[in-house]
Design a protein that fits this description.
Helix content is 3%, strand content 39%.
Length: 242
């Protein structure tokens, strides 16, 4: 049991907000806290001590980190110099992309969550595939026009898209998108939405967690992406997103 205090201007102690305690292996825990009203010209501190109501004890600490923002990111090792955390970005390109991707039919299943606002003026890409011919196959965690997830398949002049249902921040969402002789979309175990159009998507790379330019990031956690080089049935899409 721990109590903690966030320092504020003029040396006045004021409790901050405990955002969460995450269990790690071997008895370690990650504690996430938020404090506001901090002024750089003053001395500000986070202080931990054993909870006196639980008796005496020892606290072992490692990896303390403070950062400017409303939520904690991954650990950034430093040696006394302020650093900026780079955005997470991954891409699958040739020659690794071609052997497993099927242009004529396929299914993507993605599991993710958002840690920022569930409505945004920016697209939040879970993954995006495209090439110079303006072919695209993308899943956006947020589509600005609706504030909902959106899956888009086709070319720049002829795109079939599916709008999902509203997301909740910090809540996992499961989505499946299938293309082939026809297309379908399922979210969180709901019956698949279908479109009779056939799609053949000739893309040459897949950006994960951002768009192709690496500028419109998910702002969340990507839990998994699964790909099947075949158009799974609507019932399978529904089962995979439960």
């Amino acid at each position: 049991d721990l109590t903690w205090t966030a320092g504020v201007p003029s040396g006045v102690a004021s409790p901050g907000t405990l955002q969460g305690i995450d269990a790690y292996p071997n008895g370690w825990y990650r504690i996430r806290m938020l404090a506001t009203g901090v002024v750089a010209a003053n001395i500000n501190e986070f202080r931990f001590s054993p909870d006196v109501s639980a008796g005496t004890g020892t606290v072992i600490m490692w990896g303390a980190q403070t950062e400017d923002g409303g939520f904690a990111t991954s650990y950034i090792p430093t040696t006394g110099t302020v650093l900026t955390r780079n955005a997470d970005r991954a891409a699958i390109v040739a020659p690794m992309f071609t052997p497993w991707f099927s242009a004529s039919a396929g299914t993507f299943v993605a599991k993710f969550d958002l840690i920022g606002s569930a409505t945004s003026t920016l697209r939040r890409h879970v993954w995006n595939g495209t090439d110079a011919g303006n072919q695209r196959l993308s899943l956006r965690g947020i589509e600005p026009a609706t504030g909902f997830p959106l899956a888009a398949i086709g070319t720049g002049t002829s795109v079939v898209s599916f709008n999902g249902t509203a997301l909740t921040v910090n809540t996992p969402v499961n989505i499946a998108v299938a293309y082939g002789t026809n297309m379908a979309y399922s979210q969180n175990g709901a019956a698949a939405i279908t479109d009779p159009s056939a799609a053949s998507v000739s893309i040459s790379s897949l950006d994960i967690g951002s768009n192709l330019a690496g500028t419109l990031f998910l702002n969340g956690h990507l839990r998994s992406i699964d790909y099947y080089p075949t158009r799974l049935s609507n019932a399978q899409l529904q089962a995979l997103t439960v």
